[in-house]
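Quick one: structure for this chain?
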Amino acid sequence: MSKKHRGRIQAQGGGTEKSQSWSQDDPLTKKQGLSLLKSLWNSLTKKEKELRKKPYEDAQRYIENVNGGIDAVKKKTFRNRKTKDVRIDIEVLAGSAFLLLLGIFVYFMLFN
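Got it. Here's what it folds into:
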Protein backbone atom coordinates (compact mmCIF):
# COMPACT_ATOMS: atom_id res chain seq x y z
CA MET A 1 0.00 0.00 0.00
CA SER A 2 1.40 3.39 -0.95
CA LYS A 3 2.19 6.02 1.62
CA LYS A 4 -0.08 9.06 2.05
CA HIS A 5 2.62 11.70 1.51
CA ARG A 6 4.91 11.44 -1.53
CA GLY A 7 7.05 13.64 -3.70
CA ARG A 8 10.52 14.41 -4.97
CA ILE A 9 13.10 17.13 -5.41
CA GLN A 10 15.04 16.92 -8.67
CA ALA A 11 18.02 18.42 -10.45
CA GLN A 12 17.24 18.31 -14.16
CA GLY A 13 18.57 19.52 -17.48
CA GLY A 14 21.97 19.89 -19.05
CA GLY A 15 22.45 16.13 -19.00
CA THR A 16 21.69 15.86 -15.27
CA GLU A 17 18.85 13.80 -13.88
CA LYS A 18 19.17 13.30 -10.12
CA SER A 19 16.51 13.26 -7.43
CA GLN A 20 15.68 12.74 -3.78
CA SER A 21 12.21 11.39 -3.04
CA TRP A 22 9.99 10.78 -0.04
CA SER A 23 7.13 8.38 0.61
CA GLN A 24 5.84 8.30 4.16
CA ASP A 25 2.74 8.15 6.34
CA ASP A 26 3.34 11.56 7.97
CA PRO A 27 3.57 14.87 6.11
CA LEU A 28 7.11 15.94 5.21
CA THR A 29 8.38 18.68 7.55
CA LYS A 30 10.25 21.76 6.40
CA LYS A 31 13.35 20.39 8.13
CA GLN A 32 13.05 17.09 6.24
CA GLY A 33 12.44 18.93 2.95
CA LEU A 34 15.50 21.11 3.44
CA SER A 35 17.51 17.99 4.30
CA LEU A 36 16.39 16.29 1.05
CA LEU A 37 17.30 19.42 -0.91
CA LYS A 38 20.74 19.47 0.76
CA SER A 39 21.24 15.75 -0.02
CA LEU A 40 20.40 16.41 -3.65
CA TRP A 41 22.83 19.34 -3.68
CA ASN A 42 25.58 17.18 -2.20
CA SER A 43 25.07 14.56 -4.93
CA LEU A 44 25.82 17.10 -7.69
CA THR A 45 29.21 17.64 -9.30
CA LYS A 46 30.97 20.99 -9.03
CA LYS A 47 29.80 21.96 -12.54
CA GLU A 48 26.20 20.87 -11.83
CA LYS A 49 26.25 23.00 -8.68
CA GLU A 50 27.64 26.03 -10.52
CA LEU A 51 24.75 25.86 -13.00
CA ARG A 52 22.17 25.46 -10.23
CA LYS A 53 23.41 27.86 -7.54
CA LYS A 54 20.54 30.36 -7.96
CA PRO A 55 17.82 27.70 -8.49
CA TYR A 56 19.07 25.91 -5.33
CA GLU A 57 18.92 29.12 -3.31
CA ASP A 58 15.44 29.87 -4.68
CA ALA A 59 14.21 26.34 -3.85
CA GLN A 60 15.65 26.59 -0.36
CA ARG A 61 13.96 29.97 0.21
CA TYR A 62 10.69 28.57 -1.16
CA ILE A 63 10.66 25.69 1.35
CA GLU A 64 11.67 27.97 4.23
CA ASN A 65 8.91 30.50 3.43
CA VAL A 66 6.00 28.08 2.95
CA ASN A 67 3.20 28.89 5.39
CA GLY A 68 0.86 26.08 6.37
CA GLY A 69 2.45 23.48 4.10
CA ILE A 70 1.74 22.54 0.50
CA ASP A 71 -0.95 20.12 -0.59
CA ALA A 72 -0.64 17.80 -3.59
CA VAL A 73 -0.50 18.03 -6.47
CA LYS A 74 1.98 20.92 -6.59
CA LYS A 75 4.95 21.21 -8.94
CA LYS A 76 7.36 24.13 -8.73
CA THR A 77 10.36 24.74 -10.98
CA PHE A 78 13.38 26.92 -10.24
CA ARG A 79 15.25 27.63 -13.49
CA ASN A 80 18.68 28.88 -14.43
CA ARG A 81 17.44 31.57 -16.77
CA LYS A 82 20.79 31.62 -18.61
CA THR A 83 20.24 28.09 -19.92
CA LYS A 84 17.44 26.35 -21.77
CA ASP A 85 16.62 23.57 -19.33
CA VAL A 86 18.84 23.54 -16.20
CA ARG A 87 16.62 23.59 -13.13
CA ILE A 88 15.62 22.25 -9.74
CA ASP A 89 12.07 20.90 -9.43
CA ILE A 90 9.99 20.31 -6.31
CA GLU A 91 7.01 17.99 -6.74
CA VAL A 92 4.48 17.22 -4.02
CA LEU A 93 2.68 14.28 -5.63
CA ALA A 94 0.41 13.10 -2.77
CA GLY A 95 -0.55 14.39 0.65
CA SER A 96 1.23 17.40 2.16
CA ALA A 97 4.75 18.69 2.58
CA PHE A 98 6.84 21.39 4.24
CA LEU A 99 4.84 21.65 7.46
CA LEU A 100 6.28 22.83 10.74
CA LEU A 101 6.17 20.23 13.50
CA LEU A 102 3.34 22.18 15.15
CA GLY A 103 1.48 22.06 11.84
CA ILE A 104 1.77 18.27 11.77
CA PHE A 105 0.28 18.08 15.26
CA VAL A 106 -2.69 20.22 14.19
CA TYR A 107 -3.03 18.16 10.98
CA PHE A 108 -3.37 14.94 12.98
CA MET A 109 -5.78 16.50 15.43
CA LEU A 110 -8.05 17.56 12.57
CA PHE A 111 -7.75 14.62 10.18
CA ASN A 112 -7.17 11.53 12.36
